UniProtKB/TrEMBL annotation:
Domain of life: Bacteria
The name this protein goes by in its record: Putative nucleic acid-binding Zn ribbon protein
Organism: Prauserella isguenensis
Biased composition (Low complexity): 19-31
Basic and acidic residues composition-biased segments: 1-18
One Pfam short name: DciA
Location of the region described as Disordered in the Swiss-Prot/TrEMBL record: 1-54, 141-165
């Protein structure tokens, strides 16, 4: 009886219309069971699914979202000492960069005058370090005047000079 059941099971796999476990249906011998449009490997060439460096991804996002101009402006502030030189950076700090105009505050009026004379050379150094068109003009300011206003209330007048009778 056992032998007869084994023979029936063996013969059942060879009947037309039945398939054996692990075999493929007729006509699909070269295809996998997955979606035929989807490959399972990237091959030898570069692919978007390959691991990417963080810098490449950040650069792609910056261009995609339009952050390139703001990042270039950030390079001016972050690398100020290397762009203009240590001696100039010691006495001048960038304040703002809007529409290609860089506002620089000098530590003294003498340094503000010196920076106005060196303005062309500074623009050339910044352009070579960051890129052309990032900084188009420079506005040099002297040191900020001290504020004599102390506290929340203020009486108008000429400052400390009006207390000396």
């Amino acid at each position: 009886m056992l032998k007869a059941a084994q023979d029936r099971a063996k013969n059942r796999g060879h009947e037309p219309g039945r398939r054996q476990p692990g075999s493929r249906p007729p006509g699909k011998q070269g295809q996998t069971s997955q979606n035929p449009r989807r490959r399972r490997w990237s091959g030898a060439g570069a692919d978007e699914r390959d691991p990417q460096s963080l810098g490449r991804i950040a650069a792609r996002m910056a261009t995609q979202f339009g952050w390139s101009d703001r990042l270039a402006g950030g390079h001016v502030f972050g690398r100020w000492a290397t762009l203009v030189g240590e001696d100039v950076a010691e006495h001048a700090q960038p304040v703002s960069l809007t529409d290609g105009e860089l506002v620089v505050r000098a530590s003294s009026t003498a340094w503000a005058t010196q920076l106005r004379l060196l303005q062309r050379q500074l623009l050339a150094k910044i352009a070579s370090g960051v890129g052309h068109g990032v900084v188009k003009r420079m506005k040099i300011q002297g040191p900020a005047a001290p504020s004599w206003r102390k506290g929340p209330r203020h009486v108008s007048g000429r400052g400390p000079r009006d207390t000396y009778g």
